[in-house]
Input
Amino acid sequence: MIERKVRTPILLLCLLPGVGYLLALFGLPLVRVVYGSFTGSSLEEPGLGLATWQALFANPVYMDGLWFSLWLGIAPTLVSLLISLPLSALMQANESSRRLFGTLYKIPLVVPGIVAGFLVLIVLDRGGMASRLATPLGLSVPRLVRDDLGLGAIIASTWKTVPFMTLIIAGAMAAISKDVLAAARTLGASQVIILWRIQLPLAQAGITAAILLSFIGSLGSYVIPSLLGPAYPLPLSVHMFAEGFQKGNWPMVYAMGTLLSVMAVAVLLAYYTIIGSLGRSKPGAS
Amino acid sequence: MHPSLSIRRLAKQFGANRVLKGIDLEIPPGRLVVLLGPSGCGKTTLLRTIAGISDPSAGGIWLGDRRIDDVPPEKRNFGLVFQTYALFPHLTVARNVSFGLEMRRVGKAEMARRVAAALDLVGLGDYAGRLPRQLSGGQQQRVALARAIVIEPDVLLFDEPLSNLDAKLRDSLREDLRALQQKLGITSVYVTHDQSEAMALGDEIVVMKDGEIIERGAPIELYRRPTYRFTAEFLGMTNVVEAEIAAGACKLPWGDTRPLENPGATDVEGVAIRPEDLAIEAVTTGEHGTIEQSMFMGAATHYWVRAAGRTFRSIASGGGSAILPKGQKVRLVAPARLHLLRRHAAGSGTSA
Output
């Protein structure tokens, strides 16, 4: 009994560096943000209430911003996934493709987001490089920068996201035994079937991690939508900056941050539900 | 009737490294041929080239009269069993076994029947719903075997399938594997570096070294009458004795003379005497040598005898009721006829 009494505090002390770090740097600020969203219009106002949340949901500008944030989080993630999956599979095919794609895809890794934004601006803006190249050929480049759908922001985010996603997914695919892939081939599976039936399910943990990182990064992105996004709607990240630094309405910043986090969790739960149901729909799959 | 497999002038090169140097091999229908050799001899590369996983640099492969070396592996209808089992970890045993049938678009009822039959054949009928990680190594390899045979392959290929298993399981699965291959009559190629496995399983053994076939033959032929020293030493323990040869007879280092089985052999490197063929007799005088060391192994006793300036190995079967002590004076008794070993030069291996 005495031993247990002594052991529990020792174990807690041992856990403190890890758990304490998480609590101090992530848990407490998160609690503070959520708490702050229920305070009055400024932190000096005492008491808790729903006034900030009511103001947030009542304002169509913010609601449009929320949906636009989700769009800017989901669209580049899906496009990046469509590029990264076959790219990662190609890199497993043989040594020469691994060397070629392995070098090419890493280039954007070293380019900061704001530089990527300016690159897209220089190339795709009206009067940009693409436009100047297309005009003599009698072609016109559609509006891709500051357009209503945020295509320029999606392109820039995708350009930045693809290398990270490929790095993770290719790593997960490289961990699959070569014998397993060879076994599938000798049993009659084509490369496409191997990708779909073997590589994707076995690399699912890596793919999920890549989707998570890409989605969260794009959802909260501030620089790229500011530079390349439309004048309206603005994503919540841009509204948060304006509310905090221009209007000093920090409870609204906290409410928007909390809402974005809740929406991120909701989207990821939906993703896990879809993946889970796909797994269950295949008889015998784990 | 399963077709024969012919390999002609097959070469494989990685940069300047010649892994296979023009292999010629004919495997008759229904036979199990074992590729035996040390690590790096090219046996696994040869097997993977037959499977289509690796492309040959030169030469060709024929299945019956159909050339197949340009046919992708998924179209060859070969079953391949790996050392690592290579099961699909996210699929159940039944789904692993049905994978090849799904690729061949076999109907559901037929598929269920064949999967059940294949699993029954390997004794895993009750394990259909389990995942590979819920099975032992031996069970996983049985699933891999069921997965390979359920597609009714033209050729079965085994890449050291028993190497990852413990000794007891290896023996039991080896017997099952041989019985199954004989029952199904599928032309098979089996890669191993284990000589006892090769002799137990193979209708024929093909001995490989440095990307070449050294020689091939029935297990007993290769064991009893190997052409080369490499084969004699790789297929179990042997005493290679440098002896004086004259007039069809051989004078052994301890003075005895014996007639030769193959007196016409050229490039002679020595005489092979298997330890179990070299008897010892305890004497008090007129000895050839003395016992240097002995080891009781249960079914047999191994002796190391120092004679004529070197050590010879002898195995007394049955273990004996009394083990001769270290330092015991003994006479060595060689078999009635001796077998000459030829020196092997690169490129002089058999084409079979």
Notes: Chain B has eight helices and 21 strands. The mean pLDDT of chain B is 92. The two ends of chain B are 22 Å apart (CA to CA). Chain B has three domains: 5-224, 228-270+338-352, 279-333.
